[in-house]
Amino acid sequence: MSAKFTSRSVLQAFKRHVSARANTARQESTDAAGLQVQDQHAWVSKLPNGVTVASLDSTTSPVARVVLVANVGPRFEESDQLGITHCLRVSVDQANKSKTAFELTRHLTQIGANLSCTATRENLMYSLDCLKDNLDIGVSCLVSAATQQAFKPWEIQDCQQRIVFEAAVVEQQPEARLTEMLHQVAYRDTLGRSLYAPSHMFGKYSSEMLMEYVNKNFTAERMAVIGLGIGHKQLTRYLKTMSVPGSGSNTAKAAKYSGGEVRHEIGGDTAYAAIVTEGLGSQNKDAVALSVLQCVMGCGPTIKWSNGSAASKIIQAAGQATDQPFATSCINTTYSDSGLFGFYAVAQASQMGQVLKAVLSEFGSVTKNGVADQDVQKAKMQVKACAAMMSENGSNVIQNIAQQLLSEGTVQSQEEFFRLVDSVSKQDVVNVAKKVINGKPSMAAIGNLSTTPHLDELM
To answer: Which of 121, 182, 260, 391 has its CA 20 to 30 A from that of 19?
Structure first.
């Protein structure tokens, strides 16, 4: 049993955006549990307690996956609770009100199941992978771990050592730190809250603090259970006695984009930088056009071992500015009510200035000169291909359904999404480019920044 972590919330199959990760289109069609989805039709209903349940009984694997998603991620933390969701995530294997830590581990081990907790800035996701014959025991373990927390003081003290360890690991990963820095400068609070606990909070999480957060935020309208490889009636039967720890309604504070610049000098031979403006929320009508724009600009190589220049405007631009190794890709990160759109770049420290200026010039060219019809058509095909390939992966499908249920209350089919993509015109792409790219910028940079220009020197 483990506590796993997902650093981005953009692994959604046919949500109204495409992941900013350069290798998204090359993800394996079958995830670690062998859950390959054949049918995208989701059954949706509500339990008597108000929790939404969705299921897709569309896998041939003997393994089923059930995920309890709670809209309680770091964006909901108060200033005196920073990192509390990090503590919640690593405490998934602790004792709860119905099972001791030993009982929980023994039950999961005996049925060969895996229980984990992952986090995005908006959600915590408690995931169970289990053989279909043992789902009754597995779902019982999942529900108790996610909704019946006990937070015994001695166990909370033990898990804080894991918090310190994970934070130390992230300190050694410039890419992860860049993502945290970028969100912090772009939003300050809400979506700017880190996925990791800050050092000044190490050792300060208490049972009372954790229980207060759970009781305030784990409410029925902010929770959903999604099953993959399990019938809907069977899933709802397993959940009929599920209780919800929180009560009442807790309206989330709207994300407010601020913009600015943050830099961190750590030396070395390489520089990492990202420049974005405010993008669009998942429910915005122009979000699909922004996905197409992302593919027009370039999402990294689509052919293994290639440099990606044939399909990426910004890689072509950066390649003309330097003869040294580099990487760059368009960013389109979407949340329920906001987003970030721009690019990141990695280059030799001495070349970062030229790379950033070349890529920014390419973005500016789109707002001034527009885009070609053939580029738009190619990008639309890339968006659909990416969505189709991602929807073959069970983890992506579940995360996509979870975000749709919690933000919109409905599940959009792949065919519906494809129709939206097909309806995007060249003018739609140009309009959304002018709307988004000309917005207030944010910049984050880390590494050897001796020749990396400041934001005011680039814009």
So the answer is: 260
What is the rounded CA–CA span in Å between residue 91 and residue 150?
A: 10
Residue 38: CB atoms within 10 A of its CB come to 9
d(CA 273, CA 247): 42
pLDDT band at 413 (very low <50, low <70, confident <90, very high): confident
SS3 at position 178: helix
Q: Is the pLDDT of residue 13 over 50?
A: no
- 200: Cβ contacts below 8 Å, ≥ 6 apart: none
Greatest distance between any 2 Cα atoms in the chain: 64
36-40, 105-109, 222-226, 382-386: range with lowest mean pLDDT: 36-40
Rounded (10°) angle between helices 426-437 and 373-390 = 80
Paired tokens of 277:
């403006």
Confidence of residue 248 (pLDDT cuts 50, 70, 90): low
Q: Which pLDDT belongs to residue 28?
A: 31
Token pair belonging to 38: 């054949």
A 10 A CB-CB count for 306 gives 12
Paired tokens of 335 = 């949340």
Per-residue confidence (pLDDT) for residue 91, from 0 to 100: 95
Give me the torsion for CA of 105, 119, 96, 44, rounded to 10°: -100
Task: State the Cα–Cα distance between residues 180 and 277, nearest whole angstrom.
Answer: 16
Q: How many helices (H) and strands (E) does the chain have?
A: 15, 11
What are the tokens at 379?
């990008």
Q: What is the mean pLDDT of the chain?
A: 88
